[in-house]
Amino acid sequence: HVSLRQLGTASEHALQLLHETYPAGADTGPELLSHDGEEAGMVVKGQIEVTVDGNSAILKPGDGYIFDSRLPHRFRNPGDEVSEVISACTPPSF
């Protein structure tokens, strides 16, 4: 299961920071995500496949991303080890 540890809430803050953990093969689900704002993140450990608006890239430690989160997106760990990502979203989506 994907773990999302969060700082900041939609009801109290303009920014949300997440520590995301994806076990091997885990993803954010079959439905693409979409919400107002922007997202950015950096891979700390393992690898993560980021798909935004039909375009996918596999990122490794030190790689990062930033995108308009109104575009359909999802995250997936295609590797065989746990992946960790630190991300931020503004405004918070939850």
Question: Any chance you could write out the topology, listing elements then pairs?
Answer:
Blueprint: E1 3-7, E2 16-22, E3 38-45, E4 48-52, E5 55-59, E6 64-68, E7 73-76, E8 83-90
Antiparallel strand pairs: 1-2, 2-8, 3-6, 3-8, 4-5, 4-7
For the largest beta-sheet, the strand count, sense and barrel status come to: 5 strands, antiparallel
Question: Tally the helices: what do you get?
Answer: 0
Report, as a whole number of angstroms, the end-to-end distance.
18 Å
- Total strands: 8
Class of secondary structure makeup: mainly beta
**Spatial order of strands in the largest sheet:** 1-2-8-3-6
Q: What ranges have pLDDT less than 50 throughout 5 or more consecutive residues?
A: none
The whole-number mean of residue pLDDT values reads 95
Helix content: under 10%
Shape: globular
β-strand percent reads: over 45%
SSE sequence, one letter per element = EEEEEEEE
Task: Tell me the Rg in angstroms.
Answer: 12 Å
Attribute tags:
94 residues, mainly beta
What does this 3D model show about the protein?
This protein has strands at residues 3-7, 16-22, 38-45, 48-52, 55-59, 64-68, 73-76, 83-90. The chain is globular and about 35 Å long. β4 and β5 (55-59) form a beta hairpin. It is built from no helices and eight strands. The chain is mainly β and 94 residues long. The chain has a five-stranded antiparallel beta sheet, with no helix packed on it. A three-stranded antiparallel beta sheet has the order 5-4-7, with no helix packed on it. 0% of the residues lie in helices and 50% in strands.
